[in-house]
Design goal:
With 506 residues, the protein is of the alpha/beta class. It is 49% helix and 10% strand. The chain has 4 domains: 106 residues, no CATH class; 210 residues, Rossmann fold; 93 residues, Arc Repressor Mutant, subunit A; 60 residues, Winged helix-like DNA-binding domain superfamily/Winged helix DNA-binding domain (Arc Repressor Mutant, subunit A), CATH 1.10.10. A hairpin with an 8-residue loop joins strand 8 and strand 9. The structure holds adenosine-5'-diphosphate (ADP) and magnesium ion.
């Protein structure tokens, strides 16, 4: 495989990776500044107008921005933050990066985190000396232990302040009473207003992750409700589709302080995705030079359909293909080759992570595309708990995801990658499952020998099995569970009174 060297992109005449899926930088001197690389959802679009009007209303606001993962939500909010910080008449102050919202937050940790972000930005703008209220600033710096060193990216520094931002590095926060923190926060707002800003935008991201933990999330919102209401604060919460309805709406007290409905972002159009990628080529082209497209536009459009317009997935897939594609001279990757590569890459990845049995089950799921737990159990003829086990693993790996997380009867869907492999498998004689039938019924010698000695319809215990095979109870249990999964046995009873009913012979 081609190893990526630092100047890998230079063979195409590009200064950097055009398919980078990090959010666009708010800084104008970045290689991909948001001011230039942002496409679509401009002045003329509904979502732009709505968002702008909300930020225009003086006094502050609370808004939810929603959409599927990878459609460009974070970038949308960043773009507005950029406009309000740099291009508007009434400027709104904003922190660097996005604040990761945590369900573990109470009022105190919420305040500490927000203060950390604001203080860091103030520090970056003014260094150690702030034109106003210097003593407050010094206290805040001390409180947050912000030691921004020269040449250190502030993002890295952020990771170690305001406990809870990063898991790896936790610096204990000096115990400051909540009332004092609240006071600091209000003073901090005043300080920022005195610097000539009309307000402050707080951008909370990653709320996607919280949707799994609705109650904790709601508790946090309930606690911080009055802080969010402080004047001149514009708090933006970015989450997955349904966030507003499932988390905010049910809380009367919280909903009343939010703008009445979420701003929903659809995927960008095909033209916009292509344009975004073309602009990146232009911006990254070495000065006064042409560039070679690493990939045909046709491939981008193919991926657009595959990933239902989600630009992040489209660019991630291109990046993976280009870096996988062994080349020492620049070639533009065409559609045929791209499909082939995608197939190889995805199936290799799946085969590394899953057993043949798991792959086979995953392909069955792909065949159904959307399914409920019960439908799947019926279709696969598995035990309910076994279905649950597979689903848990696939969900962790991102191969399936719930479409409707809230209602009791969840409907799940396979990821685009899995569906792609399934369709390729259907349309050609390629098979991702290596030796399904063999693996499917494969029993160890011990298992088949033992199974032969039990009558169909009889019940056996772990001890029976252990004695028969002269093995330890734990090995016996492992064998039995495996036989159950393969449909030879059915388990009933609990703990010490667990029995296995023999369903068929080997
Ligand atoms: N309007 C846009 N113009 C240009 N690039 C975009 C736009 N929206 C998203 N992107 C790019 O797509 C990638 C994913 O966007 P992101 O905002 O992180 O999506 P989300 O927050 O919805 O998961 C990022 O690399 C981002 O730069
Ligand atoms: Mg995002």
């Amino acid at each position: 495989m081609h190893s990526l060297s630092q100047n890998f992109w230079t063979i195409y005449g590009l200064r950097n990776n055009p398919y980078d899926t990090n959010a666009l930088a708010l800084y104008t001197d970045a290689l991909l500044p948001i001011s230039k690389a942002y496409v679509g959802r401009g002045y003329e679009s509904k979502e732009f107008q709505l968002f702008t009007n909300i930020l225009r209303s003086p006094g502050g606001a609370r808004i939810v921005v929603e959409g599927e993962i990878g459609v460009g939500k974070t970038t949308f909010v960043n773009y507005h933050r950029y406009l309000w910080e740099k291009e508007s008449k009434d400027r709104l102050f904003t922190h660097c990066g996005e604040i990761s919202f945590s369900v573990q937050w109470d009022r105190q940790s919420f305040l500490v985190n927000v203060l950390s972000y604001l203080t860091t930005k103030l520090y970056l703008l003014y260094g150690n000396i702030l034109p106003v209220n210097n003593s407050l600033f010094q206290e805040l710096l001390l409180l947050n232990k912000v030691f921004v060193e020269e040449n250190t990216q502030w993002q890295l520094t952020l990771g170690c302040i305001g406990g809870g931002i990063s898991k790896e590095k936790q610096i204990s926060i000096p115990m400051v009473p909540e009332a004092k923190l609240y006071h600091y926060f209000r003073e901090c707002i005043l300080t920022i207003l005195k610097l000539g800003y009309a307000g402050i935008i707080l951008h909370f991201d990653n709320l996607e992750l919280l949707q799994k933990n609705i109650e904790a999330c709601q508790k946090t919102f309930d606690e911080i409700r009055d802080i969010l209401q402080l004047p001149n604060i514009y708090s933006i919460f970015v989450g997955k589709t349904g966030f507003f309805n499932h988390i905010i709406s049910p809380l009367e007290r919280v909903r009343s302080i939010f703008f009445g409905w979420p701003i929903f972002l659809k995927p960008l159009s095909q033209e916009d995705v292509l344009k975004a990628i073309h602009i990146r080529y232009e911006l990254l082209a070495s000065q006064n030079m042409r560039y070679i497209k690493p990939i045909e536009d046709e491939v981008v459009l193919y991926l657009y359909n595959l990933y239902e317009g989600k630009i992040r997935f489209i660019m991630d897939a291109i990046y993976a293909m280009i870096t996988y594609f062994p080349t020492t001279f620049p070639q533009t990757l065409g559609l045929m080759k791209a499909k082939e590569l995608l197939k190889t890459m995805l199936s290799e990845k799946l085969q590394n992570l899953l057993s043949s049995r798991e792959l086979e089950i995953l392909m069955q799921m792909a065949k159904m595309k959307e399914f409920s737990n019960a439908e799947l159990t019926k279709k696969l003829g598995l035990q309910r708990q076994n279905t649950a086990k597979y689903m848990k693993k696939f969900m962790e790996l991102g191969y399936i995801h719930p479409i409707n997380q809230i209602s009791k009867k969840s409907i799940y869907r396979v990821s685009e990658d899995v569906y792609f492999l399934y369709s390729i498998q259907e349309s050609s004689n390629f098979s991702i499952v290596l030796s399904p039938s063999e693996n499917f019924v494969f029993l160890s010698k011990r298992q088949s020998k033992a199974l032969k000695t039990f009558r169909i319809g009889s019940s056996i215990t772990t001890r029976d099995y252990a004695e028969k095979c002269q093995i330890s109870p734990s090995s016996a249990l492992r064998d039995l569970k495996n036989l159950e999964e393969k449909g030879y046995l059915q388990r009933y009873g609990i703990k010490k009174n667990t029995y296995f009913l023999v369903l068929k012979k080997a």
